[in-house]
Amino acid sequence: MILELDGVTVTFTAGPPLRRIHLNAMKHVSLAVAEGETLGLVGESGSGKTTTSRVALGLQRPTSGTVRFDGRPFPKRRRELAGRMQAVLQHPHWSLNPRMRVGQSVAEPLTVLGRPAGDAVTEMLEHVGLEASFAGRYPHELSGGQRQRVSIARALVTRPAFIVFDEAVSALDVSVQVQILNLIKDLQAEYGFSALFISHDLGAVRYVADRIAVMRSGEVVETADTETFYTAPAHEYSKQLLEAL
Amino acid sequence: MSLLAVRNLVIDYAETRALDGADLDLARGETLGLVGESGSGKSTLGSAVGRLLPTTARRTEGEVLVAGEPVFDLPAREVRKLRKKHLGFVFQDPIASLDPTMRVGNQLRLVLGRGGDVRFHLGRVKLDDPRVLRAYPHQLSGGMAQRVAIAMAMATSPELLVADEPTAALDTQVREEVLNVVFSLAADAGTSILWLSHDLPAVARRCDQVAVMYGGRVVERGPAREVLGRPVHPYTAALAGSAPAAAGHGVRLEPVPGRPPVLTGPSPGCAFAPRCAFAEERCDHERPQPVLVREQEVLCHRAAELSEAETPREVTA
Amino acid sequence: MKKLDRLTVGGLACLAVLVVFALGSLVGAGGDPDAIVGPRLQPPGPGWWLGTDNLGRSVLPRVMEGVGTTLLLSSVAVLVTAAVSATFGIVAGYRGGYLNELVMRLVEVLYSFPAIVLAILVAAVLGPGQTAALASIVLVTIPLMTRLVRAAAVAVSQRDYVTSAVISGARLPRVLGRHVLPNVAGTIAVQGTYALSVGIAVEGGLSFLGFGVQPPQASLGVLIQQGGTYMIAAPWLILGPGVVLVAAILAINVVGDGLRDRLEPRETRSLT
């Protein structure tokens, strides 16, 4: 298992000291992503899937429960995992720093590790279907689909073992969504990374994932093979999601 | 007489052509989904209905009739009157469409005029909470702000509501609720809806009619179920077949290669021809004229043969 | 690039004239500001294009020197403000938590003093003079700039490219320097121009009250204060520096508006 969440609970507190409210964003969530596998995570906003993604990326510490990466407990310092896990996030508009050229953005994960970028940038850009000349452009010159391709190139440049895709295609036009989803599948076949693919759209999740977990109000209500989600998921809520397609 | 009629509308910006001869009709009480990807010209068409285009836009040809009145040929005062009397608008970014310096209650009062019942109108959009009245727009969530915008647009019971991707900036959970409010209010008031969206299945679920835009023209229009279920235009077929949800287990979708065109002038032929699997020689240089296939009006030279071949979708999948 | 609108161009031109004016006094154009050139309190005429003052000095070179003093003083002060506000605003906005609370409370305390009261307090502590004027401008302009930089930094910190950089293992200096700072720079520049106009007004007020720049050195505030005594007999004494002061503040504000329209995305803009 590349990533294991074991009984993870995350509680947020809000409000003034005496009337403090406790919110459980995740309640005893257990998930596991095997080597080379894509686990889909589907749920409405507020279901806790964003918190789950933050926990998986080490950006959010669980209130209780354990997280293991590559068989070992999460290191205290996030930086120790740098380069071994990456993410492709939601908003194509804000995924790239508008003041940096595309090439600098793609090279960044290598730069922070102190590794030379060399030809890696142009090579990665070509792998995601963009010409080498894109390296010199600024994000505002790119379409939404092209920006997400750049984000994928940036995530792949360190050859990570694990990538989180958090609503990575949700903001794109439908036909572009399929292009990006196909790209993710192809790159996975080539590089063999494991992935956590998070979306509110069961259609998109079903298209790329090997197994699917359904979240609702902070809990995982069903986990099953993708095939099940084409025919007969067990949980009532999963059925609703299927019918809505 | 239809409530809205768009005839061969051509709109140019400084360097690009946004609409390249668009046609559209909408009857009273009807709901129409205008579907297209970014850059297809649907927002320009939506704004043209109320002559709300940016100043850099130029109408080169054609006309827009709202309740029989030629919107582009009226003096500015008459246009304002027409907007007030017949039209309501809801835009993508709800918070930006409200006045940031004014409390929500005061803004509503301004729209409703004297004797308007603010609480009643907020209640209609399921926001009957005194705190909303006192709030400034930036203190509202996107969904709440959009409902306020809807309450304002629907306060005068307009004959036509133009909703430009009203849920694009909202969380998925809120989307359905907001759409429910829009459609139920419109149904009660007998308001026609022109709903701009890029989500073909969602539109087909709620609207009577669907119009699909590509390259600044409406390439296919007709009853929603027909257009989605038995698309005739190859682009509609590709769009309907490209949603990930449409794929069976283990089936790989092959999206149409290439990207939508950016027009600088009139397209010499069919704008979709360079990406179309069925394109012939004449598609490149002969502009297609509307053809009626079953109940659908289609801009495609090969519409008749393709509809007989039954499932052009199979070829694109 | 979008073309600048006419108003902004006008503001820039006006500012350029004032700067040329100020630079001119350095090379002695317009004459020696301290030389007595003719009779006292003469209305504008040949030899003294803006009249003479109560000592018979030509007003024109004194206004030129005054513009220079005021602009230089305000600019230096605004640079200090920008550096301090950028540092604290960005760190507070990015880190949040207690540091954020601390910075914001300090800023609020500072903000609650009326500008001129704050300036007088500073002058009382430091003693009147240029240093007091400089410190006053800095303290008066810091609160607003820090707040706005912080607000912009909060918005930028939540963007996906910042998160991506953190996930990639970027350290704090890199995240702040490469990702946050360049994307709040527009806010800093825009607020900087507004701060500059506030700075000019504060310098004017402080020197007018006698706590700022000390005669014989000329600044716009000093000139207005000296001219005030003879306002009825010799209105040109106050008119020259007064018009220049108003023009400078207006021009800078207009340029600031133009800059804001160009550099600042809507969401980081303040409502007022």
TrEMBL record, chain B:
It is found in: Cell membrane. It is a peripheral membrane protein. GO terms for cellular component: plasma membrane. GO terms for molecular function: ABC-type nickel transporter activity; ATP binding; ATP hydrolysis activity. One of its GO terms (biological process) is peptide transport. Pfam families: ABC_tran, oligo_HPY. Residues 4-240 form the ABC transporter domain. It catalyses: Ni(2+)(out) + ATP + H2O = Ni(2+)(in) + ADP + phosphate + H(+). It is an enzyme of class 7 (translocase). Keywords: ATP-binding, Cell membrane, Ion transport, Membrane, Nickel, Nickel transport, Nucleotide-binding, Translocase, Transport. The keyword Oxidoreductase does not apply. Its EC number is 7.2.2.11. Belongs to the ABC transporter superfamily. This is Nickel import system ATP-binding protein NikD. The lineage of its organism: Bacteria, Bacillati, Actinomycetota, Actinomycetes, Streptosporangiales.
